[in-house]
Amino acid sequence: STSSIKWDKETDVLIVGGGGTGVAAMLQAANDGAKVLVLEKAGIAGGTTNLSGGVMQAAGTEYQKSLTSYKDDTTDKHAELWIKSGEGYIDEALVKDLAKGAPEHIKWLSDLGLKWTSVYGHNHVPYIDKALYADRIHVYEGGGAGGQGVLLVQTMLKAALAKGALIEYNTEATKLLTDATGTVLGVVAKSGDKSMNIKANKGVILAAASIDQNIEMAKELSQQHYWDL
Questions:
Q1: Looking at 20-34, 55-69, 86-100, which range is the least confident one?
Q2: CB 13: neighbour CB atoms within 10 A?
Q3: What angle do CA 56, 61, 66 make, to 5 degrees?
Q4: Cα-flanking dihedrals φ and ψ of residue 35, to 5°?
Q5: Cβ(150)–Cβ(53) under 8 Å?
Q6: Is 217 in a helix, a strand, or coil?
Q7: Exposed, middle or buried, 223 (CB in 10 Å: 0-12/13-18/19+)?
Q8: Cα-only R_g, the chain
Q9: What band does 1 get if pLDDT is binned at 50, 70 and 90?
Q10: How far apart are CA 6 and CA 199, in angstroms?
């Protein structure tokens, strides 16, 4: 019975996982006026995003126009390239959404203070039409090599903390708490030997490591990543 649950903490939006995705969600929820709590089982934020190369792909941005010879690139071309590269193993609707949203992500991060300094292209797949390619890989100042995703994470994290969002480290969410209809009310979390029930009045966002650490999920959703694992 949900009425018997003793809540130890309460928030509006509860985010499970403080990697790049979780911190981005943390900031956006805080920008939207929500009270936010992130649970991160490690001792630092960023997860595998910290290990990334400090670059991000997008088509049709002001930086692509000013820093490259591609003045009329489109998100449709970008999505089509990704879809053909995926060889039938991807969710086309999701890929199209990612491509169309990418320019706004660049702008969002620019507004936080990241400075985009260069834009370059990537190696061509021989059987994909060359007309779909363009220089789309945006590099921010201080990025461009492995391990430089830390700057991205810290930029978002500092902005979120300044908005009043909270993050608890060394705290792992272990179970979702639901009512009789299956509606998620909150989570059970563990910190050291202490267990606590945390209520989320407006929802729980699951941003914990998934495909990076889960061989079965990788096999189902990303064959290339499965082979890498």
A1: 86-100
A2: 22
A3: 105
A4: -80, 125
A5: no
A6: helix
A7: middle
A8: 20
A9: low
A10: 9
